[in-house]
Design brief:
mainly beta; 14 strands
Length: 257
Amino acid sequence: MRRILLSLVFILVCCGVSAQCNFKNTAVKGGEYISYNLYYNWQFVWVKAGTATMTTSETTYKGHPAYRTSLTTRGNGRLDDFFVLRDTLLGYTTLDMAPLYYRKGAREGKWYTVDECFYSYPNGNCQVKMHRQKNSGDHDWATRTFENCVYDMVNIFQRARSFDPKNWKPGYEVKFQITDGTKVLDAKIKYSGKSTVKADNGKKYNCLQLSYIERDNGKDKEICRFHVTDDAFHIPVRLDMFLRFGSAKAFLTNIKR
């Protein structure tokens, strides 16, 4: 399941990270815990299919201060005969939100893959070592160097939580490049306006509606639509996910900060 959320970073002097990949974090902090109920669209009916948790903690990465963000989804077994949902996303970033490491282990249906990205910043560039373990067990490795910064799923969503949408109009887009462990794609976050969302904790939230879109083979594909609180923290309240085998939704159940 390709999802939104999580990462943070440290400073240029300590980590040797190119300044172009740093970003002022105003929304995410260590000790954050967010949980969701997951629903899967099965034969035109929305069925509760499991839960998801997103956590961010302060830690170190290769001896330097960093944030560790993980997003874990777990099916409840009711649909396992038809659709197995077991995903884990993990991201490390500096305290200034430059990406350091990304991993996605995804079991969707009968498919299981592992994607990894290892970031370094030689000579002011962004170098990404990409790895995919295929469903067959085969491994693909590639290393690419970019003049501009490249992001991953975890990092870009945490980074987006610190965006200032004050002057955004519906249709406004933030464009960037993203990697998933096999290739680098053009992607964007598109703002669609404001909404009111009732979460699974019974509360209603004023939200901003955003879409994460990737461009592959000349076509735009919406991967996830998410509603974040219209405040300084931009907590994801509702997620609409478009999967390989259908669609799923997530609704907020709990927040601890």
